[in-house]
Specification:
By secondary structure, this protein is mostly helical. Helix content is 74%, strand content 0%. It is built from ten helices and no strands.
């Protein structure tokens, strides 16, 4: 019986159920709109820690990250989404009413700005999930990362736009999409994002380590370093 519960099909099924539960929590916590930033931060944090690293419980880790980063993520979400709304509105207006080469150039600049701000948001919420920084510090680091890791940024944008397209095109199946897509998207971007974040994560010293009763659940190899340093190498 023990071997049955340790089999890969059962493990994968368990993770899928965790993803569905996490998606439900995420969607509910996004309903007030202003909480979307905190929800995105908590979603990324929980996906990497619980689903990828098998540490902690879905609800406990999500709640911890959501409330711990609520104020800071709000300081990122509100100005960023406001900037996106302005640029999106101007682009739409120019597409409908504008004419000429100058208008086309302005539309191109607005679309580039829209994508750049979107990239900043993607990085900023991941940064908030991992580091203790101010909203301004998260945005500053997100700008640096998005420029320094241009190839990875393109991947993250493609994944984000693909998810948005799927939601728009498949709106008739939106409930099903929301049950699967948010956590699947977070896991996909974490493949790249974790390799970036590890480069900005200081190594833990012996003095920094503190005994945690929960660590007794894991092997000595796992206890050697915190969950966010597992499967990561700055030299990769």
């Amino acid at each position: 019986m023990e071997r049955f519960f340790e089999s890969k099909p059962v493990i994968y099924l368990s993770k899928f159920i965790d993803m569905v539960v996490l998606n439900i929590i995420f969607v509910i916590s996004c309903i007030p709109i202003i909480t979307i930033g905190a929800a995105c931060t908590a979603m990324y944090y929980t996906c990497v820690k619980v689903i990828r690293r098998d540490r902690g419980k879905i609800w406990q880790e999500y709640k911890h990250s959501f409330f711990d980063n609520f104020g800071t993520s709000l300081g990122v979400w509100i100005p960023m989404i406001a900037a996106e709304a302005v640029m999106g509105g101007l682009t739409y207006y120019l597409l409908i009413m504008g004419h000429g080469a100058g208008c086309a150039a302005l539309i191109g600049l607005l679309m580039a700005g829209f994508l750049f701000v979107l990239a900043i948001m993607i990085y900023a919420f991941a940064v908030l999930s991992r580091f203790t920084v101010t909203a301004a510090g998260a945005v500053k680091n997100a700008v640096i990362m998005s420029v320094s890791h241009g190839g990875e940024t393109v991947y993250l944008l493609v994944m984000t736009l693909a998810m948005a397209t799927l939601i728009i095109m498949g709106w008739k199946f939106l409930p099903v999409i929301l049950l699967v897509m948010p956590s699947a998207y977070s896991l996909l971007i974490s493949v790249i994002m974790e390799k970036i974040l590890i480069r900005y994560t200081p190594k833990e010293t012996e003095e920094d380590r503190q005994e945690d009763p929960e660590d007794m659940l894991y092997t000595e190899e796992h206890k050697a370093k915190p969950w966010y340093l597992e499967e990561g190498d700055k030299d990769e």
